[in-house]
Design a protein that fits this description.
By secondary structure, this protein is α/β, with parallel strands linked by helices. It has a single domain, classed as Rossmann fold, CATH 3.40.50. The protein contains 5 helices and 7 strands. Strands 1, 2, 3, 4, 5, 6 and 7 form a 7-stranded mixed beta sheet that branches.
């Protein structure tokens, strides 16, 4: 395992074979909170990946009557922990607040787990039997050889967090969701599927409305 603080790039440059919500938390003090203007941030040093991800999420939020803004409009450089000081970030967020933005949605890679399949079975996953069977059946060719057959894969642990910018809340965490992306391969599908998962989570928590409502 290796920690990744600015490698949303690696996750998005790979792809999407399976996206799973592993945990979700909502601040109980924010009942009835409905974001109206959101800054979308993909934490990565890769400008192209950042732009693609943020545009996809922005467009989907717009379809739900939410005014969303990509981070490159606010932060000219790629947004990561090392390119801006805390004071600079605070200044930009205060500017957004004055412009009417009430929320920031941040997504980043937290960890990358390297694993190996032996005869189709991932040895260290904590998924229940149905999930293991799905993974097993996804790789039927592995069963045709002896026990030495193996296939390496990665699990990306992704976190998306929603923060309120309202003055009274003092930039408070409203919601956080953690996801596993298993052995991704295609950039565009990864982005589309991950965005869908995040939006579904926000809908379930009644933080945003469903599309068309």
């Amino acid at each position: 395992m290796r920690t990744a603080t600015i490698i949303l790039t690696l996750f998005l440059l790979s792809s999407c074979s399976s996206t799973k919500l592993t945990s979700s938390w909502k601040n109980p003090e924010f009942t009835g909170f409905k974001p109206k203007k959101i800054l979308v941030i993909g934490v990565t040093s890769n400008a192209e990946v950042r732009n693609t991800f943020e545009r996809a999420l922005k467009n989907e939020l717009n379809k739900r009557q939410i005014n969303a803004l990509k981070s490159n409009v606010v932060f000219e450089k790629s947004f990561n922990d090392s390119t801006y000081t805390q004071q600079e970030i605070e200044s930009q967020l205060n500017t957004l607040t004055k412009a009417g933005y009430d929320t920031v949605l941040v997504s980043l890679v937290k960890d990358i787990n390297n694993n190996t399949f032996y005869n189709g079975i991932p040895p260290k996953l904590n998924y229940r039997l149905p999930k293991l069977l799905v993974l097993y059946l996804s790789y039927p060719n592995i069963n045709t050889r002896q026990n030495y057959q193996q296939r390496k894969f990665q699990i990306f642990e992704i976190e998306s967090s929603l923060y309120s910018l309202c003055a009274e809340s003092g930039k408070t965490l409203v919601w956080s969701g953690n996801y596993h992306i298993i052995d991704p391969k295609n950039t565009q599908r990864t982005i589309v599927n991950y965005v869908k998962k995040v939006l579904k989570s926000l809908e379930k928590e009644a933080l945003i409305s469903k599309k068309g409502m």
